[in-house]
Amino acid sequence: MTQLTTSAQLCAALDLAGRGIPVLPLREGKAPMGNCRACGKNACGGRPNMKTPGPCECAAPCHAWAAATTDPAVLTSAAWALAWRQAAAVAYHPGGTGLTVVDLDNADAIAWARQNLPATRTVPSTRGEHWIYLGTMASPNGVRPGVDIKSLMSYARWLGPGTGTMTPLPDVVRALAVKEPTARPASSASTVSAPPGGGQCPHRSPAYLERGIAMAEQRIEEAPDGIHRTVFRMFLAVLSAHGRCGCLTDGHIARLFTAAQTRGESLRHCEDAWSNARTQLGM
Length: 283
Prior knowledge:
- The chain has 283 residues and is α+β, with helices and mostly antiparallel strands.
- Strands 3, 4, 5, 6 and 8 form a 5-stranded mixed beta sheet that branches.
- The longest helix has 17 residues.
- It starts with 5 loop residues before the first helix and ends with a helix.
- About 6% of the residues have low confidence.
């Protein structure tokens, strides 16, 4: 797919918005724009933590999917101008327009979908296909190998209108959100929890650990590029400093994963990065 110029991206976004499709700009690597300083580390309350979709309350395109809008005045505002200059693609909020995207990331995933899912509108993607259904649902990633769901509280790259007739969201797709994930090799755990600890604790106060987690969140949220590398390095740093004494909790890990997923990382990539960091440290 030919990369759109910045002006063409904005024109495409305005065209989609005019058809009632909430849109937002994406950076290189299909990641949303980083939060502004007022929204950094979710200091403003963190719109992505809300249980229902809604517009971002910041004037800038912060909080990924929550920034998606159909308002041409917002899209062409001064607060969004820098984002469009940096944009590499246009994304949309499927749930905001009553849709669910089944993101099939490779040939095996496509083959599975053709055997198990009802036909619907399809759009070729960089490595696979997007299957688009009428209806909304939760947006879990990694429901099967190479299969993610993009609907409520999520975004998908706009790759064109696609072909075929869009059909209602079937129960077999909804069921993917509640089924147990397909097992992966032992080297990449399907669930992540804090290390058991047992080592000597170097923390003089809880503030030491809190500063470490907050700094890692900030580095992930503000990484200009190379988000995969940044996430791994921050996971490695946190585990190196806090992973052996038992003070690191599942809640701390959830904060790191949330920061990474806000920047476009899938749950699968987060789990793999965490597992790889533990392996490198011999944990």
